[in-house]
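Quick one, tokens below:
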């Protein structure tokens, strides 16, 4: 009954868009009873549960999807976002490190982890040294020509107290961002440069 299961999932999506999250969850659960390995339904149900403030259930739903496919990026990214919003930073750290162990070649994930370890609001979780290692690896893989990667490296240097290096790298990120049509990123980095000039690291950002 694949068509019926997909119809249930699509109905759940439509209900979610209308803000009818409880009804949406019911449709996703029904779809999953029929097809227990339906990754998209787990992911969509997790999003609806998160909107209802049922964080633990949302986390469980995303994790169920990842049991079937550890490389299902949608569920992984949503899991991280929900945990971040809930302030469950140690869990974020653990999940991201587990993901990178599974996929050490994933430079996007390495960059996300470096940013998190540099800027996490919880000082007990921050790890500037590891963030620098990861960010330098990412920048090396991009030939130091990726503005976002350079922004991450600058934040990591600042977390380590290496403010002059942070400013130098951040300025390069600004130039690259402007030349790539990423004006909003350039302005964000310029704001961070002001912090680095005051010998302050950047914390608490998305």
């Amino acid at each position: 009954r694949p068509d019926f299961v997909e119809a249930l999932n699509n109905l759940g999506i439509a209900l979610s868009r209308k803000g009818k999250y409880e009804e949406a969850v019911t449709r996703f659960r029904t779809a999953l009873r029929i097809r227990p390995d339906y990754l998209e339904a787990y992911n969509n149900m997790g999003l609806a549960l998160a909107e209802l403030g049922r964080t633990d259930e949302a986390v469980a739903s995303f994790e169920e999807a990842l049991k079937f496919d550890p490389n299902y990026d949608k569920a992984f990214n949503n899991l991280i976002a929900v945990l971040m919003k809930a302030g469950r930073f140690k869990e974020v750290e653990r999940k991201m490190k587990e993901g990178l162990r599974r996929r050490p070649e994933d430079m996007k994930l390495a960059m996300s982890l470096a940013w998190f370890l540099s800027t996490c609001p919880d000082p007990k979780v921050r790890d500037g040294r590891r963030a620098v290692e990861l960010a330098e690896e990412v920048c090396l893989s991009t030939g130091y020509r990726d503005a976002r990667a350079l922004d991450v490296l600058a934040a990591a240097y600042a977390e380590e107290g290496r403010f002059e290096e942070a400013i130098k790298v951040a300025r390069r990120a600004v130039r690259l961002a402007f030349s790539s049509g990423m004006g909003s990123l350039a302005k964000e980095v310029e704001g961070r440069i002001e912090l680095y000039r005051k010998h302050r690291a950047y914390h608490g950002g998305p």
